[in-house]
Amino acid sequence: MDERKFDDTPTTRRSLLDRQILALAVPALGALVAEPLFVLVDSAVVGHLGTAQLAGLSLASTLLVTLVGLCVFLAYATTAAVARRLGAGQEREALQSGVDGLWLALGLGILLAGLLWITAPWAVGAMGGTGDVAEHAVVYLRWSAFGLPGMLLVLASTGVLRGLQDTRTPLWVAAGGATANAVLNVVLVYGVGLGIAGSGIGTAVAQLGMGAILVAVVVRGARRRGAALRPAAGGIWANVLAGTPLFVRTLSLRLAILLTVFVATGLGEVTLAGYQVVASVWGLAAFALDALAIAAQALVGYGLGADDVPRVRAVLRRTLQWGVAAGALLGLVMAAGGWWFALLFTSDPDVRTAVALGMAVCGLLLPMAGWVFVLDGVLIGAGDGRFLAWAGMLTLVVYVPFALAVRHWAPDGAAGLAWLWLAFAGVFMAARAVTTGLRARGSRWMVTGTA
Predict the structure, then answer these.
(1) What's the half-sphere exposure (Cβ side, CA atoms, 13 Å) at 278?
(2) N-to-C CA span, the chain
(3) What CA–CA distance (Å, rounded) separates 288 from 31?
(4) Is 337 exposed, middle or buried (0-12, 13-18, 19+ CB in 10 A)?
(5) What is d(CA 209, CA 336) in angstroms, rounded to the nearest whole number?
(6) What's the whole-model pTM score?
(7) What is the largest CA-CA distance in the chain?
């Protein structure tokens, strides 16, 4: 038998592609789940301080994650650019763009940390927080603000490493950071007696440590490939231009999440506390699915840089299959285990009921989310940021009336939380599935080369 002919069969090609996807996605999974694990640990530790503290953490963590999430272009734009240049054989240029991204991340992190400290009371009030809930939210926000430079440096350096198809290094750093965060939270909250402030401090210290380690890895790689370490105004500006459409796209997603929290706040303390728990688990599942999107980003960017369109199409098809299947599996776990998850976070029976019902709704809709996340990753890897920007705003417009209807007509407690998640995980995700799905069917997003 001709071995070369055997190696070129569709089954063998698909198997090789599967191994490439998993080689990138599995380590990326560990790194991606670190962020929701931070929130989960904070929720578990703070939740036993009381319902008001947990509700305050819900507001504060939503604002913090929103702020950091708006800067995710530091990772996504860099991944696409570095992967394209790697596919074209331009390693030094790839690392140079990554170094410029680090300087941009550092400057933004320092600026945003100061702004968050100053505006924390106003931001919490704008979200509807009052009384003890608002007080706890402000305390957490201000102490965790010190970690913002580290959080943004983690994004930028991780983007560089993903573009270089290295997802293992961020995995080990994320695992160490998550462990350190858990230990620091328990020690500072209960051992030292700092309460919710201790949770914010622990998170900030862990993020700063992660950022320092990942920056050191990128700097070492840049030196080895002859890239300059000084900030270049042109390079930083190029990163800003590449990231602006993705910033708009992410802004639409974060506004949808903020609107969801606003609705939950209006439905009462039980609904808001229940939302925090369900959102934490949803975030964990979402980041797990996003690991496939990260693999798609790197492989699509590399394929377009190497002018290999058939390869890009193959990556699209296979990662979508993986995304829907993984969403179905995670959704089953989420729907069936809702009550048991609730026991870990609260002793309030009303909140437990709300959590169980909310997770059942989310579990049913998670396969569609898997489709959406993978398509998002494919289009980001292709550098199709402009389309994602306007599509994101369109889906937000579709979601707003449904969310406001829930706030106006839904009851409080478990039923209200179920309706809220049906609007977000159902209507909003369906709108995203339609827009990105139609785009992926065409070929306008498949621009080859390094331009």
Answers:
(1) 36
(2) 43
(3) 9
(4) middle
(5) 37
(6) 0.80
(7) 77
Distances (CA, A) of 15 to 11, 35, 429: 6, 31, 30
Cα–Cα distances in angstroms (integers) from residue 220 to residues 80, 99, 182, 213, in the given order: 21, 11, 29, 11
CA distance 311 to 66: 35
CA proximity to 239, closest of 376, 108, 390, 115: 108
Asked if 297 contacts 246 with a C-beta cutoff of 8 angstroms, the reply is: no
Burial 201-239 (b: 16+ CB within 10 A, else e): bbbbbbbbbbbebbbebbbebbeeeebeeeeeeebbebb
Instruction: Give the model's pLDDT for residue 241.
Output: 77
Give phi and psi for 297, each to the nearest 5: -55, -50
- Taking CA atoms, 450 is separated from 208, 225, 316, 394, in Å, by 33, 19, 20, 29
CB 391 within 8 A of CB 438: no
Closest by Cα among 31, 35, 67 to 145: 67
pLDDT at 324: 94
* Local confidence band at 4 (pLDDT 50, 70, 90 cut-offs): very low
Tell me, what amino acid is at 427? V
Residues 6+ apart with CB under 8 A from 31: 158, 167, 170, 171, 173, 174
Q: How many CB atoms lie under 10 A from the CB of residue 12? A: 11
Q: Which burial class, exposed, middle or buried, applies to 335 when counting CB atoms under 10 A from its CB (0-12, 13-18, 19+)?
A: middle
Helices vs strands, H then E, count in the chain: 18, 0
Reading the block at residue 109, the tokens are: 């992190």
Task: Pick 220 or 6 by higher pLDDT.
Answer: 220
Reduced to 3 states, what is the DSSP secondary structure of residue 450? coil
The CA R_g of the chain, rounded to the nearest whole Å, is 21
Read off the pLDDT of residues 312-356 as tens digits, 9 standing for 90 and up. Answer: 999 999 999 999 999 999 999 988 887 787 777 777 888 888 888
- DSSP per position, 190-240: IIS--THHHHHHHHHHHHHHHHHHHHHHHHHHHHHTT---S--HHHHHHHH
**Dist CA 332 CA 266 (whole Å):** 30
Q: Rounded to 5 degrees, what angle do the CA atoms 276, 147, 237 make?
A: 110
